[in-house]
Amino acid sequence: MKLFFLVMESAKLPEPQFKTDGMFTVVFQRAEEKSSGKSSGKSSGKSSGKSSERTWAETKELLIAKSPVKIGKSALKILEMVYINQFITIPEMAKRLGITERAVEKNIRNLRNQNLVIRKEGERSGYWELLL
User: Are 27 and 16 in contact (CB under 8 A)?
Assistant: First the structure.
């Protein structure tokens, strides 16, 4: 195990995150890409979920400011869960919020319509992405 961390450190890769919320999960992160300093002139508006640059409070304020309508309590909790774990499932969200999966799906549909969150790389094996 020590060799694994030494290799990760020598490659300048971030340490993996170990989570145990119902099941054991290991999240590996890609190395930071170095910018050439050039800009394409287009802003993609992408965020990879949890950002090392912003806290949840800062991210929340940006999302609230971006939304054309008031974001409800459940929707804010869903956004926070996505911020913390971009691989979270709808059933997990429903269980943590104490609401039905259908209610979570309705909240997500509204968040998608407001361009605050999208699903990447498929419904089953994909992940959530916050759009800032």
Answer: yes
CATH number of the domain that 68 lies in?
Answer: 1.10.10.10
State the DSSP code for 26: E
Give the pLDDT confidence of 94-108 residue by residue, as tens digits: 999 999 999 999 999
Q: Is the pLDDT of residue 26 over 70?
A: yes
Give the integer Cα–Cα distance in Å for 103 and 75. Answer: 10
Confirm whether 111 is domain-assigned.
yes
SS3 127: strand
Total of domains in the chain: 1
With respect to residue 87, please indicate whether it lies within any of the assigned structural domains: yes
| 129 DSSP assignment | E
Identify whether 72 is part of a domain: yes
Q: Find, among 130, 127, 132, the residue nearest to 50 by Cα.
A: 130
In whole angstroms, give the CA distance from residue 18 to residue 112: 29
Burial of 75 (0-12, 13-18, 19+ CB in 10 A): buried
